[in-house]
Amino acid sequence: MRRLVPKQALLSLYRFQHVYLPIIYGLLSLKVRVSDVTDFLFYRTNGPLRVNWPPHVLWRAVGVKCVWLGWRVALPMLLWGLSGAACFGFFMATEVVTGYWLAYNFQVSHITEGVTWPNGDVAAAAAADGGVPSKAAKKTAASASGQKVAAGAEQAGVLADSWAENQVRTSLDYAHDSGLWTYLCGALNYQVEHHLFPGVSQYHYPALAPMVKATCAEFGLPYLYKPDFPAAFAAHVRFLRSMGQAGKAVHMD
Fold first, then answer.
1. For 174, phi and psi rounded to 5 degrees?
2. What is the rounded distance in angstroms from the CA atom of residue 25 to the CA atom of residue 195?
3. Geometric angle at alpha carbon 113, from 230 and 219, rounded to 5°
């Protein structure tokens, strides 16, 4: 449905992804409701992770889903006397609003202008060069932003950046001076800090941000920042548009 990195095949449909994607983002919540069940039943995964489910987990999962349906559907119908159609309408409205809120908050922080897309495909690039990760192979494996694999890296698939550098290069912050936006997005506007310090309370992010920004400047790392959410969202839409109209089609396994 969308093209995010140059290594993806360029299809004609993607030319309009900056138009249709912000519209269908509202379906994210419903998609999660469905994939939550299908991943569990058919793939035995929790998101992208394979999970060895403990005994009787199926019945516990069914029980939790029944409680959720009772809270979201049965309880409103009983307490407010809603018809099935009215309850369905309210349910869909809340799901679409939730989908937009989730999708917009997630997308502007990572799918945007200026971020790096490391891929670590040194092995794949080297395969076309006789199995040796040559300089040309390493350049091919570099990220879309021009980041190069570190000199002397011999192990195929190793990224040039450290873990912390990767968090900085792949995230964008916005609206640090807005208490309203910080509240509405649960402090996810401090996305760099969120990734660097996942175990630290979001209440400390405003104090951490200046230190992170100064450290990035000290080590020559970019600190991607937009003044407000509209500017961050506009950068996301521009990125979708540029990825949909530029690039060369290549095969992806």
1. -160, 155
2. 23
3. 110
Nearest CA among 30, 60, 57 for reference residue 45? 57
246 secondary structure, DSSP code: S
Q: How far apart are CA 18 and CA 4, in angstroms?
A: 11
The secondary structure of residue 40, as a DSSP letter, is I
- Please answer whether residues 244 and 3 qualify as being in contact, where contact means their C-beta atoms are separated by less than 8 angstroms: yes
The pTM score is 0.70
Q: How far is CA 102 from CA 105, 176, 229, in A?
A: 5, 19, 14
Residue 174: strand pairing partners: 226
The per-residue pLDDT for range 132-187, each reduced to its tens digit, is 333 433 333 443 344 443 434 434 456 677 889 999 999 999 999 999 999 999 99
Q: In the block, which residue shows the tokens 């969202």?
A: 233
Q: Which tens digit of pLDDT belongs to each residue from 6-52?
A: 777 777 777 777 878 888 888 888 888 888 888 877 888 877 778 88
- Tell me the C-alpha distance between 21 and 239, whole Å: 12
